[in-house]
Specification:
Number of domains: 2
Helix content: 25-40%
Number of strands: 15
CATH class of the largest domain: Alpha Beta
CATH architecture of the largest domain: 3-Layer(aba) Sandwich
Shape: globular
CATH topology of the largest domain: Rossmann fold
Bound molecules: adenosine monophosphate
Number of helices: 13
Order of helices and strands: EHEHEHEHEEHEHEHHEEEEHEHEHEHH
Amino acid sequence: MELLHLKGLDLQDKKVFIRCDFNVPMDEFGNISDDRRIRSAVATINYCLDQDCSVILASHLGRPKGEVNEKFTLAPVARRLQQLLKRHVELAPGVVDDATLKLAAELPRHEVLLLENIRFEAGETENDEALSKKLASMADFYVNDAFGVSHRAHASVEGITRFYDDAHKSAGFLLEREITFFSKLINNPVRPFAAIVGGSKVSGKLEALVNLLPKVDKVFIGGGMAFTFLKQLGYDIGASLVEDDLLDEAQRIMDEAKKLGVKFYLPVDVIAAEKFEANAVSKIVTAQEIPDNWMGLDIGPATVRLYREGLADVQTVLWNGPMGVYEMEKFARGSSKIAHFVADSYATTVVGGGDTADLVQRVGVDDEITFISTGGGASLELLEGKVLPGVAQLVKKEN
Ligand code: AMP
């Protein structure tokens, strides 16, 4: 599979629409806590500016659910981007309102216009054709550099590609780098190959887990999603996060792992807390003895030791999702210890997903990781062997 290359486009003096992924994590004060995704887009933007283009950028941030919500404005992103590009970035008042369309139409060469949060428009996640058409009307060329959302058939990711022929659209440098890396990883992983999967929800990662099983040798589960599995095994999980409607699915995954001979690891102890609060009373308990009304917010020390043992011989590690509520210091130890272990290993280590990338950066081991992907769900789907909807239309046709 070869992608349509950005350098293959005749961009000189034209207008380019670049779908970026500026969905960056923010701290409790509304500051950007990890700007990797913004930094990663700079190469593509600068390349287009160097071709004397004017550049229109689009991205989502959080989940405003189709409504304008100041909490999710891209203003902080515009400010950071301005620093990184060392040039003015104009933040549009909206996405496809008249004033924004006018700004886009009159955008002079070498200028950068950032549309407001694309998910302020309900049509974005519905892949609405009318919205795609309006977005496409803004520019002569379309470039997708938003690896993190390329697994979504959304208006600015998938729908819009249909309004450009192959000479007028391409993958950006970041998208291309990610796809190339994962294609190599999937075709020829050095074994044993382990997946560490955490985070809050089973639902978001369930299908990925099922499809990953035939590809990996070991799976290590952490984070809130572990409790759905533990509950299915008959443990009392107190008030821990659980998705009751997915208990059967959890069983299916464990059965499938057994059938395939995949070593499936679950936490054997957890840090349990009375409340979901940064300074809640907490204690280490075994998975069998989580008190009623307490919630497991991190993996415990025995689990860390167990996972280290299990990971000691692996040659390739894919890590997606934190082991606990790493944003709170008290519940960050499990994630931090696993991060140090993964970083110190001689295996090929791949970290995917905004939270996990943020985590390894906070722990200070990001330089030791082989590849930090800007996409969590997208990287999982690639590893499952899927063609991502946002990439499908950017593949060079065989002739
Ligand atoms: P996800 O978006 O599914 O990757 O989940 C990431 C989030 O999971 C982080 O914000 C963590 O705080 C959260 N998380 C991890 N472990 C737990 C847990 N045991 N209980 C609740 N939330 C958790």
